[in-house]
Amino acid sequence: MNTQNNIEIDELDKSYFVWFENNWTHDDVLHYHERGQLVYVESGFQYITIEEKIYLLPQNHAIWIPSRAFHKTNSHSEKIKLMIMFADLHKKDPFYQEVNVFSVPPVLKEMIKYAERWSKLTVKNDDETVFLKALFNELPHFVEHSLKLHICLPKDRRLNKVIAHLHDYYRNDIKIEDLADRAHLSLRTLERIFKKETGLTLTKYQQILRIIKSLELLSSGNLTISETAFEVGYKSVQAYTRSFQSVMQFRPTDFMKNIK
Known about the structure:
single chain, alpha+beta, Arc Repressor Mutant, subunit A, 2 domains, 9 helices, 11 strands, transcription, DNA-binding, Homeodomain-like_sf, transcription regulation, DNA-binding transcription factor activity
C-alpha cells in the first residue's frame, strides 16, 4: 500500500519526495512503501507502530523507516508539524535496513527545513535531487546513537489483559502477582512468556512505559520536569532522573535543551 493523502508515492517518477504539513493528519491504517522514509517532528509528538513495535517520536526527533516496513500512526499531539521525506535508496549501510530513532542535530534540522521548498512537488527537480541525495548520503553520520526506545506488542493472547493493565496503570505501583491472576497464569509462567514476547521483564516494561510517557509530556512543553516526574508515577525528581538516565543514557534536562 503506497498512497499518502491521494498521492501514489511509489508511482512517482523521481528518487525523492518531500511532504511537509503544519497540522498533519494521518489515518491509522497499516501500510508500507517501497521507498524508505525519514519522518521528522518539528513540533508536537507522534506514536508510530512499525513491525509490531510502538515508537515515540518526540519533538525535534526523527525516525528512519526502511523500505517495505509495515507501519501505521497510533496517535499524535493535538497539533503536529511533521516532515516526511521519501527516498528510493539502494544502499548497503546497515543504517538504512533497520528502524532508527534519533535526536536531530542543528545542521540536519536546517537541511530538513530547507527542503520544505520542494514539499509536494511531484515532478523531477535537479536542485531537489542533488540536495536530498547529499542529505541521505550523510544521514547515518548525523546519527551518533539511535534511541532504542520502543515497546513490543506481544502476540500471545494470554498477555492481552496484562498489557492493557500496564498501559492503563503504568503510573501506579503494580504487583506482578495481580498481573498473573489477570492472565490466569502462574507467576513464573507469566514472567517467562512476557520476557520471551517483549524482550523485557515486567518491571522494565513498566519503566520504559513511564519514560516514553514522560517524553511525550516534556515535548508538549506544558509541564516542568518535576511535574512530569510525579505525573508518570515517580515519588521524587531524583528517582525519575535516575530512571530516565538509565533508559535514555542522558538526563531529562539534556532532553529539554534539545527540544527548545
